[in-house]
Amino acid sequence: LLEREDVTINAEPPGERSLLETILFSFGPTLLLVALFIFFLRRASGAGGGAGGVLGQFGRSRAKLVEGEKQTVTFEDVAGIEEAEEELVEVVDFLRNPAKYSKLGARIPRGVLLSGPPGTGKTLLARAVAGEAGVPFYSASASEFIEAIVGVGASRVRDLFRQAEEAAPAIIFIDELDAIGRARGGAGGVLSGHDEREQTLNQILTEMDGFDPASGVIVLGATNRPDVLDPALLRPGRFDRRVAVQPPDAAGREKILKVHTRSLPLADEVDLAQIAQSTPGMVGADLANLANEAALLAARRGHERVTRADFTDALEKIVLGAERKIVLGDEDRRRIAYHEGGHAIVGMLTPGADPVRKVSIIPRGQALGVTLSTPDDDRFNYSQEELRAKIRVSAGGRVAEEVVYGSVTTGAESDIQQVTGIARGMVSRWGMSDKVGFVTVAAQQGQSPLLPGAEPVSEATQELVDAEVRRIVDDELDATRELVAENRERLDRLVEALLEHETLDEVDAYAAAGIDRAAAPASA
Ligand code: ADP
Ligand code: MG
Ligand code: ZN
Fold first, then answer.
1. Ligand 1 atom 15: the closest Cα is on which residue?
2. Does the beta carbon of 78 sit less than 6 angstroms from any atom of ligand 1?
3. On the CB side of 93, how many CA atoms lie within 13 Å of its CA?
4. Whose CA is nearest to atom 1 of ligand 1?
5. Per-residue pLDDT for the chain (524 aa), expressed as one digit of tens each?
6. Which residues are CB-contacts of 21 (< 8 A; sequence separation ≥ 6)?
7. Centre of ligand 2 from the C-alpha of residue 118, in Å
8. How far apart are CA 408 and CA 406, in angstroms?
9. Is the dihedral of CA 444, 448, 453, 459 positive or negative?
């Protein structure tokens, strides 16, 4: 068409590309990628010392070497867990004066396992050992050994032990040991994905057997779950020394508070012994937190020193949760007051129940109200009567609603959980039901999570357990109903006081209910 219309056309064929150019343009990007890949491969294997190949760098231990001088934590900072401390002082002494022990032919333990509930100071203790020992201290968390690639963990363990042996005398610290040390077997099979963990564990076992006890390498481990550890880890020659780090008693708590208030300006009236007295069950981490919260409160309130009120308010915040600003209608408030009042009245009137320390209808955290009961002393062992009393106190809230309103609300969810937990424990773990008898029928933890319900008890037994749990709860519910109905007037008086003051402490709560604290069966 253009030619026919006599238009000037200006078009040239494109210049021919050489063969080389064509190849370069079409394969260039691919070549670049390949080159890059090779480059990274080289670098990785170079850094890994060649031996490990691609995995070389992966396979190296990530344990941190803590230099003695840099570690500022010492045994001075650890308090209230003397037995555990003494064991470790001995370990430190061995590392400092090995001759003293070898002269007498004593063999030093290879492994020391610290076990105990979270926050009791296991990691702290290990850090103190690092500070005191004056030898290289390799610190690693067990989860750092585990990677998606099977074999990496084992290789890291090997590397860690080799480094420590070269630096001996030295200490290896593996925190949260249960991450790799869980009993092998169990949920094996297709879905397991536990190969890596098992290999890592095997490597630790091998290394602990392998090194010469005279070499002066001591392995420290820490765990919250000694019950799930592989028995092979615990046999003599490996973690042959087990140190139970227990929650502190009142005297221990006072010492821990002293440690954590060392740098705080305390008002003269602050009585640490009394604070320790009122915090049963708290561990070192809780107490450190308490001291810090008190200091924060004091700063916010513009105090020169940390006062007693700062401590009590901080404790309230920690134990009961922070206040929540929601506005409740009058009817809701009254119902909550009856619920909490019900817990409190039952707590005050039931023999064996812990004394009521505080009743509050201020919403905090998840809860719309709180009734706090704590024992006078630390408790380690509970009688059947005390457990039944706990069930009644927990049921008291719901029962009061029932008795007063004839209807119930959703507010008892956690109470019901607690009641069920205690009753189930009584039947299936503590041998407190005659029908089930002196046998454990609770599912063992750590066994076969893939096959729930595959516990070694028959279905008939399980049904019996359920029936017994129900019977215990029903019995206690009936007794609680009776108690609340009989003491309806006391409950009403307590509720009026609660609606007026929102929070009542021990003395006021007992007074409002017209119950003599000293004569109450709770303290009998
Ligand atoms: P875990 O036993 O869980 O390893 P940690 O050692 O990490 O507990 O403790 C956490 C914090 O709690 C510590 O850093 C320390 O401030 C405080 N703490 C715990 N136990 C003690 C104790 N016995 N003495 C002094 N402080 C403690
Ligand atoms: Mg720890
Ligand atoms: Zn409740």
1. 285
2. yes
3. 9
4. 119
5. 888 888 888 887 777 777 888 888 888 888 899 998 888 877 655 544 444 444 555 666 666 776 555 667 888 889 988 888 888 888 888 888 888 888 888 777 788 899 999 999 999 998 888 888 778 888 888 888 777 677 778 888 888 888 888 887 888 898 888 888 777 665 544 445 567 778 888 888 888 887 666 677 888 999 998 888 888 888 877 887 888 898 999 899 999 999 999 999 999 999 999 899 888 889 999 999 999 999 999 999 999 999 999 998 898 888 888 888 888 889 999 999 999 999 999 999 999 999 998 899 988 877 888 898 888 777 788 999 999 999 999 999 999 999 999 999 998 999 999 999 999 999 998 999 999 888 888 765 544 444 444 556 788 888 999 999 999 999 999 999 999 999 999 999 999 999 999 999 889 999 999 988 876 664 44
6. none
7. 7
8. 7
9. negative
Distance CA 87, CA 90 (A): 5
- Give CA–CA dist 182/231, Å, rounded: 9
Name the token pair of 150: 């099977």
| 123 Cβ closer than 6 Å to some ligand 1 atom | yes
* Residue 288 CB less than 6 A away from ligand 1: yes
Taking CA atoms only, the protein residue closest to ligand 1 atom 11 is 285
**Nearest-atom index, ligand 1, CA of 124:** 6
- Whether ligand 1 lies within 6 angstroms of the CB of 55 is answered as no
Residue 151 CB-half CA count within 13 A: 5
Residues labelled catalytic: 340
Query: CB of 80 closer than 6 A to ligand 1?
Result: yes
Could you tell me the distance, in angstroms and rounded to a whole number, from the CA of residue 244 to the centre of ligand 2? Answer: 14
> Model-level pTM greater than 0.70?
yes
